[in-house]
Every structure is written in C-alpha cells, then in structure tokens.
Write a structure and sequence with these properties.
binds NADP nicotinamide-adenine-dinucleotide phosphate; 7 helices; 241 residues
Amino acid sequence: MNLIVAGSTGFVATEIIRQALSHPTVSSVVALGRREAAVPENVGPSAAKLKSVICNDFEHYSESVKNELAGADACIWTIAVTPGQLSKMPWEEAVKICRGYAIAGFETITQLPRPGVSKPFRFVYISGANTVQDPAQKPWVMGDYCLMRGEVEKRIFELAKESEGKVEASVAKPGMIDAQGRTGLLMGAVKTVMRTLIGLPKVNVEEISATLLDQAVNGLEKEVLLNEDLVRIGQRVLKSH
Ligand SMILES: NC(=O)c1ccc[n+]([C@@H]2O[C@H](COP(=O)([O-])OP(=O)(O)OC[C@H]3O[C@@H](n4cnc5c(N)ncnc54)[C@H](OP(=O)(O)O)[C@@H]3O)[C@@H](O)[C@H]2O)c1
C-alpha cells in the first residue's frame, strides 16, 4: 500500500515514517511537508520507499504536488500548531493551519485518482485528548483551542460520511506524547505536574506511531482512538515485531 504522511518533518511524523519504511505491506511513503523530510537512520535499502514532497500552499495544491500524491491508499495527517507554539502566531494563523490545512488536505487528497483500486481511502487525523466537538463542553484550559480542534474532527467525519464509502476516517486523541530523552529532567518534571493537574494521559511516540500505521495499513478499528487505544494497539503491534 502507498502511504502519505502529512507534516513529515514533525515529532510524531518522523517516527511514523521510520516505522512505515520497514513495514512489509507499505510499498511507498510520501512525506508531505513544507520542508524536506530527513531520511531516517539505519533503514537500509528501505529508504528507497521514501519520497519527500514539498508543498508551498496547503490550501491550494499545485498540479505537480497532486500528481505526487495520486495513487495513495491512506494518509496520516499530523500538521497542526501544538499548544506550545500557539503564542508564536496570531490565533487566525493557528486556525488556518489546524483547520484550513486539514480540511483542504482531506478534500484534495481523498479525491485524487486511484486507478484500479476500489477499497476506501483511509484518512487518519491526529487531534488531542482534550478536544471537544460540543461548545457546551469547552474545557477551562485552552478552551478555544480544544473546541477548534474538535470542529476539525467533526468536519472530517462529516466529509467521510458524505463520501458514501469512498473514504474512511479515524481520529486519534492522544494525551501527552512522550519519547525517551525528549525533555530534560526539570522540564520532564514540570510537564508531569501539568499533565497530572489537567488529567492528561500519556502515550509513547513509538506506540502512537505503531497504532496509526497499523490502522492505516490494516483498517480502522474505531472512528475515535482514545489514548488508551493508542497505547493498547501500539503495544500489541510493537510486541509482534
Ligand atoms: N506532541 C504531543 O505531545 C502531542 C500531544 C497531543 C496531540 N498532538 C498532536 O499530534 C500532531 C502532531 O504533533 P507533533 O508533536 O508531531 O507536532 P510538530 O512536531 O510540531 O509537527 C507539526 C508538523 O506540522 C507542520 N507545520 C506546522 N505549521 C505549518 C505550516 N504553517 N505549514 C506547513 N506545515 C506546518 C510542521 O512543519 P515544520 O517542521 O516545518 O515546522 C510539522 O511537520 C498534532 O496534531 C498535535 O496537536 C501532539
């Protein structure tokens, strides 16, 4: 199967790409981003499966980018502004990246030609544990952000439904995504306190990546993958290697 990983230079996407390259069922990985994705270390000849595709406008895809994306069977969408980066840009810019890019990406990528393939296209979107689709449930921490990300989830499900079986969508809702050695001891302790205060669960980057890859390749177990699902499926997949 042919996989697109959108936001290919990011923290989670880098691990998804590393795992995808050694996955026997994945024959090609298109790394879609605004910059070239690095080839992971120690993947040997599997590196040949990777193709970086640079996109300059995530709201209006050029014909050349569309040509590179055509023929894919699934997309894992990781492009977003994470809460830690929100202060670096106006709110409207963050909404454009999180909502506008994801919806335009879904609409563009899922409509590209797939000659001779009748199976539904799988679109896997990473959101967050505290996002909400209902304004009445807006949380007290990062309320506008959580609601905006929830609106994207809702729209993705609506679009998948409107496709009448041509597209299947799944939304992953991880808590804090962790990786060994990612944060120093002090920052790690601060993050743990913050996470506990707002009741945020944790998943390892290898686990979430293994889960999302498994769902894209083998089929979607659930429409909404909670943090506990991401840990459970990820651990099962990683153990089977
Ligand atoms: N990390 C966590 O603990 C965590 C927890 C819960 C949910 N999530 C969600 O998981 C997903 C991936 O998170 P992550 O930690 O991997 O994030 P990340 O490392 O910040 O990666 C985000 C990706 O989006 C791209 N991007 C950002 N702004 C862009 C723009 N204006 N135009 C084009 N591309 C842009 C980045 O490109 P550049 O590399 O060029 O900047 C990068 O490839 C996000 O939806 C995030 O909200 C993350």
